Amino acid sequence: MRDTPGAQAPDMLAWTCPAPLRDQPRVVMGHGGGGALSAELVEHVFAPAFGGPALSVTTDAATVELGGARLAFSTDSFVVRPLFFPGGSIGDLAVNGTVNDLAMSGARAAYLSCGFILEEGVETDVVTRVAQALGAAARAAGVQVATGDTKVVEAGHGDGIYINTSGIGLIPPGVDLRPQRVVPGDVVIVSGPVGVHGVAIMSVREGLEFGVEIESDCAALGGLVEAMLAVTPDLHVLRDPTRGGLAASLNEIAAASGTGIVVQERAVPVPAPVANACAVLGLDPMYVANEGKLVAFVPRAQADAVLAAMRAHPLGAGAAVIGEAVEAHPGMVVARTGLGGTRVVDMPLGEQLPRIC
Q1: CATH fold of the domain at 179-344
Q2: Residue 181 pLDDT greater than 60, yes or no
Q3: How are beta strands 108-119 and 144-153 bridged, if at all?
Q4: Helical pair 222-231 and 90-103, crossing angle rounded to 10 deg
Q5: Which has more confidence, 111 or 48?
């Protein structure tokens, strides 16, 4: 390409790309995507600043002891756009997301806090609808909103409504769910079809139509986890694959446990509408967020019984075995394709679909 006389040379350092560079001097959207950039931000900025033995960077909730009781404690912030979508709203997400983080520690959620950050100019009716949805979701999940806070920011600085929820719950005796307990031979089970929530949000936000309406799988998973623990308290780890999808969760578990993970690609349940939408959008369903699914690592001896219990629960009816933990390639996730080949399932760098939770 020839230079144009008098034209100003482009500033190469000011260029941006969909997959941000790893040495960004500023925060980019990918830092909130639940992938490698998020992990780097936590590892190099937040963990050193906060410190302390209770700080958990490998699980969805911290496990702490108070007065002889083992508690799960978690917090999450929700910035989804649009505020209402097929299958739910930001209010439902704010409850179910935190309840599920606690459930992944085996805890039954007891109390939530709720902080609303409202943008100046947002309609009161919209705030009311979101608050009512949040309250209904809390009642359905059997959790009480015990305290809260409200702030208002200037117009143009809040995108309508942001919500933060924190939750606390009791962990039953004998339950110890953490990725470090995963061992070779563990069976990997997902509770149902993946990729649904992310595609539902994208279809509404971008005005896309795929022939059928795709609804978010947003749901509170506490009851499903209780059914699984009733079979055996010796589950090794649970994770709800939200930001970064199933791929991010599996990579985090592989790295923390030091095991390899092999996934049978054809065994991963993906609904046809989601698969078709991902094909059109150029997405891999394993990297798309979910809000009502979990992935479990279960000792092989208990896998059949746990799978049967999951399928007997409404939120686990589509549960499927998708792979296993192995000694080979520690810290790495690979997928065996339907053609007999093998591909590496990398940790996502940033976020395929921003602002979905």
Answers
A1: Phosphoribosyl-aminoimidazole Synthetase; Chain A, domain 2 (3.90.650)
A2: yes
A3: parallel
A4: 20
A5: 111
| Domain residue ranges in the chain | 60-170, 179-344
- pTM value? 0.85
HEC letters along 103-159: HCCCCEEEEEEEEEEEECCCCHHHHHHHHHHHHHHHHHHCCEEEEEEEEEECCCCCC
On the question of pLDDT at 10 being above 60, the answer is: no
Please state the separation of Cα 15 from the chain's center in Å.
Answer: 30
Nearest Cα to 152, choosing from 116, 102, 107? 116
What DSSP string describes 24-67?
-SS--GGGGSSSHHHHHHIIIIIHHHH--TT--SSSSSEEEEET
Burial (CB count within 10 angstroms: exposed 0-12, middle 13-18, buried 19+), residue 357: buried
The stretches of the chain forming alpha helices (DSSP H) are 36-41, 47-50, 90-103, 124-141, 196-205, 222-231, 245-257, 272-281, 300-311
Distance (Å, rounded) from C-alpha 82 to C-alpha 231? 39
Instruction: Please give the backbone phi and psi of residue 353, each rounded to the nearest 5 degrees, phi first.
Output: -125, 95
Residue whose tokens read 């996934």: 263
Matching residue, tokens 């049967």: 308
Find, among 107, 191, 176, the residue nearest to 141 by Cα: 107
Distance CA 238, CA 219 (A): 16
Question: CA–CA separation, 211 vs 276, rounded Å?
Answer: 10
167, two tokens? 């939750």
| Least confidently predicted of 9-18, 74-83, 102-111 | 9-18
Q: Comparing C-alpha atoms, which of 207, 353, 219 is closest to residue 289?
A: 353
Per the listing, tokens 């790309």 go with 17
* Residue 136 φ then ψ, to 5°: -65, -40
Task: Domain 60-170: give its CATH code.
Answer: 3.30.1330.10
Tokens of 57: 């960077």
Peptide bond into 348 cis (omega under 30): no
